[in-house]
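From the pipeline queue, job 12 of 40. The input is one protein chain; the requested action is below.

Action: predict structure.
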Amino acid sequence: MSRLIARFNAFAITALAALALSGPAGAVPPALGAGAQHKPKIWQPADSPADAVQWTTLATTDSKEIQLDDGPWIVPVFNDDVKALDRTTVKVAGYMMPLENGDEQRHFLLMAYPPDCPFCMTAGPEYLIEIKTDKAIAFSYKPLLLEGTMQLLEQDETGMFYRIPDARLIKAG
């Protein structure tokens, strides 16, 4: 009986090692072919109209660490395409992440991806826009389309890269 247990343990270890070496979870199954990508729909950025700022553009913002009197800070490094958006009126689609309790929100984060966990963010600051509105917007898990003046934040104490201080709702999910 102990030989059977030893064989089973050896098989289990080999199977786990093969699984671990086969690639990350969500790797493309060979049946899909080379170059194929399998991404669940939930991990796609919010659909944006052609005349809206695309999250892929905002995601090109890099970051660097600088030293200040109170310690290291992470600051954005905007490329020319993103710099061209500063102080212009833009449309952007995304998902609401409330900053306060309530059915309606005037100050929230707009995220490229849907919030999937109340304890963690789904992406970095290049995928978030701080939103402020005069007129409250009803909370929704569906994407919103907003319009307002894009501000690029060079060294914001909150760690944000983007803000729209005068957003208005164009379309709710």
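Job complete. Strands lie at 62-68, 71-77, 89-98, 104-111, 128-138, 144-149, 151-152, 162-172.
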